[in-house]
């Protein structure tokens, strides 16, 4: 009984510690969003030579719903390369890219130790999201933070309500037009990096569409640049849930 009590107390302490760690990480990223971003409900960016009207429907105006102070953000960490945002979800994070794919698994965007890690681009991808597809990773946290909410796109209704994310970089703003989401293996062809368009990449996009849990309004053919958002899933060993999106340039700086 004493041994069982000690195990119970130890487990309770571990759970309490984990919850405290999650809370501290969530607060740190919330503080980052408050410090480095602001709602762009007044200013707009130029799209094809015309100004957005400043209304809330950013998808119609081509206007990013937030602006990011990359100057100050990169003073804190030059390896911050973008900001990823999806309205009405928990996705509102700086994006990093390091020299390997290990460091930001256990460090925040500031470089400080953090078990929630950071959202980060595969180190093998070219800087600036110029590859045909760039892979972005994030932990699937039990509290739904980081990429813990990606599997919500398994449902058509959720996709219909959230068909677009935003990827902002120091050079440009992009709409991320989601078109596919599915569970796959960490060792699948999904993680192939293509440097440019071609028949192989068009076949890759067709395969992504065929596997998707939802039917997208727009079905791309393989031109342009894309991102793959990846997180852990628990359907089988080394399972991952991924979202694919096509980058649509809406403004440059």
Structure characteristics:
eight-stranded mixed beta barrel; alpha+beta; 253 residues; 12 strands; two-stranded antiparallel ribbon
Set out the fold topology:
Blueprint: H1 2-36, E1 37-39, E2 46-47, E3 50-51, H2 58-61, E4 66-68, H3 70-76, E5 80-85, E6 92-96, E7 119-121, E8 133-137, H4 156-161, E9 164-168, E10 172-185, H5 199-211, E11 226-232, E12 239-252
Parallel strand pairs: 6-7, 8-11
Antiparallel strand pairs: 1-4, 2-3, 5-6, 5-9, 7-8, 9-10, 10-12, 11-12
Describe it.
The protein is of the alpha+beta class. Helices cover 26% and strands 27% of the residues. The protein is built from five helices and twelve strands. It has an eight-stranded mixed β-barrel. Strands 1-4 form a two-stranded antiparallel sheet. A two-stranded antiparallel sheet has the order 2-3. The chain is globular. It starts with a helix and ends with a strand.
Query: Approximately how much helix is present in the residues?
Result: 25-40%
Total count of strands: 12
Q: What's the assembly state of these chains?
A: single chain
Number of helices, where a helix is a run of at least 4 consecutive DSSP H or I residues: 5
Shape, please?
A: globular
Give a brief description.
It contains 5 helices and 12 strands. An 8-stranded mixed β-barrel has the order 5-6-7-8-11-12-10-9.
């Amino acid at each position: 009984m004493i041994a069982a009590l000690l195990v119970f107390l130890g487990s309770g302490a571990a759970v309490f510690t984990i919850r405290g760690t999650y809370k501290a990480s969530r607060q740190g990223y919330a503080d980052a969003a408050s410090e480095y971003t602001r709602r762009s409900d007044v200013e707009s960016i130029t799209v094809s030579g015309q100004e957005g009207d400043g209304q809330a429907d950013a998808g119609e105006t081509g206007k990013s719903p937030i602006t990011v102070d990359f100057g100050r953000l990169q003073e804190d960490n030059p390896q911050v390369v973008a900001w990823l945002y999806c309205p009405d979800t928990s996705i509102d994070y700086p994006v990093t890219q390091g020299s390997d794919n290990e460091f930001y698994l256990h460090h925040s965007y500031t470089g400080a130790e953090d078990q929630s890690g950071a959202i980060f681009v595969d180190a093998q991808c070219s800087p600036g999201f110029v590859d045909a597809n760039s892979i972005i990773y994030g932990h699937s946290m039990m509290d739904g933070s980081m990429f813990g909410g990606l599997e919500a796109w398994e449902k058509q209704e959720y996709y219909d309500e959230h068909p677009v994310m935003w990827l902002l970089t120091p050079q440009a703003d992009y709409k991320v037009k989601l078109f596919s989401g599915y569970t796959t293996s960490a060792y699948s062809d999904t993680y192939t990096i293509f440097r440019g368009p071609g028949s192989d990449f068009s076949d890759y996009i067709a395969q992504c569409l065929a596997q998707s849990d939802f039917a997208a309004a727009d079905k791309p053919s393989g031109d342009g640049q894309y991102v793959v958002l990846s997180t852990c899933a628990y359907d089988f060993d080394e399972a991952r849930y991924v979202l694919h999106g096509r980058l649509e340039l809406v403004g440059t700086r």
